[in-house]
User: Fold this.
Amino acid sequence: MRIDFDQIDQKLKYKVMTASVIPRPPALVTTVDSHGEPNAAPFSFFNCFSDEPPIVALGIGRRASGPKKDTGRNIEETGEFVAHIVDESMFEGMLKTASALPQGINELPLAGFETIESDHVVPPRIPQAPIAFECRRYVTVQCGMARDIVLGEVLAAHIRDDLWDGGREYINWGGKFPIARLYGTLYASLGEVYSGQAPDPDELLK
Ligand SMILES: Cc1cc2nc3c(=O)[nH]c(=O)nc-3n(C[C@H](O)[C@H](O)[C@H](O)COP(=O)(O)O)c2cc1C
Assistant:
């Protein structure tokens, strides 16, 4: 089966892309509008792409009716966001924040999330999240009319105390990994975990 992307509509492109690149980690993103009103929504077009500078990316679409989503508009106006990694305890709440509520309504209390002040940016942080990245917009790439790819520079990472192994300076998930989005309404928890590493070139060539 070959699908030429110049022959198909946006809906099928979405289905092929999102069901091919799986799993993707949803980020629960908090922003504030120009009046300081908080907003939250999940984005699974999300990943990290660089460590120096530390960069994460969000792919933010428009609403079916045309206007920017609140998250996209807020980042455009303020240049700031907090991207939270989501664990199973946050799953139901995360889904509530995806509801297309009218602009200016704060999804966070409706979803049952408490927030605290961030240290470097105005959008609030959800302390329940295993990890939160305080981010400042690095650059926004407008892809066509319908999608903005926002690169954010991570100013600070908040790692929940129970996950941080200070002695060895690493994140210890203790087997309870973040949730993974598959496609449509399907999600997954990570199953079997195994280890591997690239061979030494001399080993490979001998
Ligand atoms: C798990 C999950 C992942 C999502 N990922 C994205 C995404 O990557 N990009 C996007 O534009 N919308 C995504 N959505 C839809 C937005 O969360 C939804 O449109 C939301 O209402 C936007 O809220 P806002 O207007 O407050 O920004 C996702 C929804 C869910 C449930």
